[in-house]
Every structure is written in structure tokens, then in C-alpha cells.
Amino acid sequence: MKDKRILIIGSVALDTIETPFGKRDSILGGSATYSSVSASFFNNGTGIVAVVGKDFPKKHIATLRKKHINLEGLKIVDGKTFRWAGNYTYDLHAPVTIFTHLNVFKDFIPEVPEGMKRAPFVFLANIDPDLQEKVLSQLTGPKFIVCDTMNFWIDKKKASLERLLKKVDMFLVNEGEARQFSGVKNLVSCGNYMLDKGAKAVIIKKGEHGVLYFSRRSRFSAPAYLLETICDPTGAGDTFAGGMIGYLSNARKINDNNIKKSLIYGSIMASFVVEDFSIGRMNRLRRKDVDMRYKDFVGITRF
Amino acid sequence: MKDKRILIIGSVALDTIETPFGKRDSILGGSATYSSVSASFFNNGTGIVAVVGKDFPKKHIATLRKKHINLEGLKIVDGKTFRWAGNYTYDLHAPVTIFTHLNVFKDFIPEVPEGMKRAPFVFLANIDPDLQEKVLSQLTGPKFIVCDTMNFWIDKKKASLERLLKKVDMFLVNEGEARQFSGVKNLVSCGNYMLDKGAKAVIIKKGEHGVLYFSRRSRFSAPAYLLETICDPTGAGDTFAGGMIGYLSNARKINDNNIKKSLIYGSIMASFVVEDFSIGRMNRLRRKDVDMRYKDFVGITRF
Question: What is the ipTM of this complex?
Fold first, then answer.
């Protein structure tokens, strides 16, 4: 049988979040959490590489296990789990960070467990690009690598990112990061800039405005699913990435057509996760719901 | 033969515009200009009701005539033509208005020429909603009415707009106007609010992010065409409306499917007009180019 496993490197965190819809203290968060839970709807062979402290609640481990997520690469070390607190105002755009306590995440050196080194699908969630590159050097012939980043690394480690860009199959940024990285305002120009820099494919996430995809062969633009209520946008981007790579890992072939579909599935997963805090909505979600919303999305966008 | 004529009520203006791509003095502008020129690519029976002053250059009259636009309803009166000057900064969002001289437009009372009173398709471009209503009272059984407005009227004449809303077939607003009118941030909620207020259908224009459509039966979301260079965004909304109603006037039936297609044609027309100042790009445009870009758009958005 074909190996479809997905390896995800990122954070597992405890978030304290306030939005116009409420406040939650120390809830399960982090890029590896959101993306692996999202991928788990498409793929039972998703493993994460991350670190938490001894304070990390056992119930969260149980939750991830229930989603069939391989936790062999989740280190539990002395110290406290990475904690982030943020407030979203009414417009639900970029949150105001109240605090970021890296804790055990500060010294995180990702080590891919022996059994996962051959995983064909890899999601490098947002960490130091030098660490992302170190992860790649541990792998044995990955087939498809998706790489995320953030404004902080574009600012501090642009050269590392530019090197990494060429080594991955898909470079994932949001609107602001695309503009920061490229130094231009127009998003089509941003996409072209990153392709010129050696990216094989670029995805620009525009939140409520959808997603753009640029590769050397094709361009694609999709709106977001229409949602009336967004409870908490935290994790939307990672959930998008997890759904995308999850769908792709199950596709017969990686071609433009399936990549486009994977972007829609990613958007659909993100549209669910923002309906509740943490992975609350994902815990109640059935694969059937995902497919129904995908159908609905087709109806909303097809002409 | 079926009557397919389109009646457009709006402004014909002389604009002075500065964008990062250059500066132009007293160029042809106005909502009736942009929308009728756009509609003319789909329909040779488009007539405008507007007013200009004696200073209005004859060459512009000739340009509009060449587009087969019926100018019976264009009054040329003593005084100066409506003039607007605006500057766009690098991000090409809302321009800074340098001046607005209403001139002859101040006392504009639209009078529909006898021959156009039976036109089945009507575009009420942005003017005082009380005047828009007066236009409607002059018509004999219009089949499809599209109505535009602006923040100024939402602020000053909300009650008039709410009355008008119920009498038209399609209410056209941009993102900011939708939020202002509805008092809510989420655009899906805005659409629902306007439907609740009695609108049959609502279009929310999101500029570079595309367009949303809400009717009692269906919802539709489309991204914008991908453009790398936007020279001057002036008239994009009116060009969108003109292309939309132009396409619809030629469609066999007005149903959701054709309305969706008309929104795409409207977007495509808008994507052309912003490539140059005034109607410069439209003067060089062939219907063939429109259909080619439509095809390209399908390729960019279909999955």
C-alpha cells in the first residue's frame, strides 16, 4: 500500500484568548495541534513533532490520540508548555498579543522519530526557518513539503527563508507576509516575486477573502466559505494547511487540479475551526459535515 | 424582436485624477459614462439620462456616439460640467477628493425621453435616492432595475433608500456601504440585513477581493480577476454595473445562473477599465478580448 503519512513540525500550546464571543483560559492550541487535527479528517497517519512541558494536561493528549494522531514525536519535558494570550477586537483581524511565554518551546530542537523519517508528506509549520531546514535534513526523500512562516522570520531571517523557499513544494504566507516578503503591494506581483525567488508554488491566504495560488504552470483564486459568525480565528491558517495536505495525501496524484481541490478543502476546514474556540468545533465535526460544506461551497462559487 | 434596451441615469463628468501611474486633467468620467460604455459591449440599445455644461468637449460626445450610446437624454445646458478631482495613493484604495464641483449637476432633475420610458433594463447610478425614485415613476413597466448608491446618501437619506430598496431588483453597494447601511461588520450579515429590509437581491462589491451576491434563493461569491497593474480604479464599480446589466439584457432569461455569469462579466469589464485612465482601455477593447478574459477567469477559478 502506498505510504500516505503526514509529518507535521510545529507548536503545541496553551492559549488564553478573548474575542467578542467570550474568553477562554489555557485552551489547547498551537500550529501542530490545529494542523494535525485538521489533517486527521483525511488521513489516519498524521504524526507531529513538538514539545510540551510537564504541565500539559493529559486530557489533551487523550484528545489528540482519539484523532489517531501519532504522538511519538511529541516530547514532554521539564518546564512549562508554550503559552500565548491574545485578544481579538470586534473586527477579528490580527489579535493583540497579551503575552507570549515560549517556555519549553524556546529550546525546541525538532527531532523526527525514526519511524516518521520516511513520511512522504511534510508540513513545516511556522518555526525558525533554520530549524525548518534542519528538519528537512533529517528526512528520507519527502514527496511533498508545505512550509509556513511568519512576519517575525521574514524580518529577522529573510536569507534563511529564501534558501528554504527553493527546497519546499509549497510556500504558505498570508497577505501581510506576502507583501512584507516581496516588498510590493499587489498580491499577483507578490506571487510572481516568490516564484522568481525559486518557489515551486505559493499560497497567499487572505482570510475572509479567500486564497490565491501561484505555480509555474497555473494561477488559482478562490473566495472563502461564507460564514456569518466567526467565534475565534485562532488556528485558521494551520487548520487550512492541515486540511490541504490531508486532502492531497489522499489524492491519487499531486497535480494542479487536486491542489486546487485541496485548497478548497483547507478553506472548508478553516471555516469550521473558527466557529468555536480551540478545536471545539473539530471535536464535534464529522467527515460527512466536511463533504456537505464542500458541496455547498461548490454551489456558492460555481457559475 | 424582444426589447433589450438599457436606460442609465447618472453623471457625465470631467475628472482630474492622480494615481501612482500618472496625472490626467479633465478627462471623461462619470457613472453614466463608465456604465454605458461598459454596457455597449453587450448591447447597442443603451441610452443615458444625464446633464453636462456647454464646456463639455464635443469629442466626448463623438466617443459616446461611436459606442452607439443613445444620447437623447443627455442635456447640454448653460454652465459648467460636473467636475471631480481625486488623488489615489499607492494602495489605490479610496481616493482623497481634491474638489467636487457639482456645477450643472446640482440642479439635475432626470427626465427620461419618451422613447426610453419603456426600456426594460434600468441602471440607477448613484444620485440622490429621491431622484432615483422620481426616475422610476416616469417608467412604463421596467423589467429589471439595478440601483447603486453611496455613503453620503446612506448617511443623509437612509429612509429614502430603504423605500427604494424594495422597488428595485438589485441593490448594489460596496463593502463599506454595506456595513454602513446594515450597521454590522460581517458581510454575510450585511447581505441578510438588506434582504430582510426588502431587497430582492444584493450585490456587495469588494474591489480586488471580488463580489458577493445574495438573493432570497441563492448566495454567490466570486473573486476578482487577477491583475498585476491597476492604473486608475475610477469608474470600476460603474463599469462593473454596466457590464452586468449589459450581459443580463442579452441573456435569454433572468435567472440565478445568468445573474452569476453577469457578475463575472461585470468583473471582467471592471478589470479592463482600471488598466488605463478614463475609458482609455475601453476605447481599445474588442468584444473578443472580453470573452478571452472571461475564459481565463474560468480557468483561474474553476476547481
Answer: 0.91
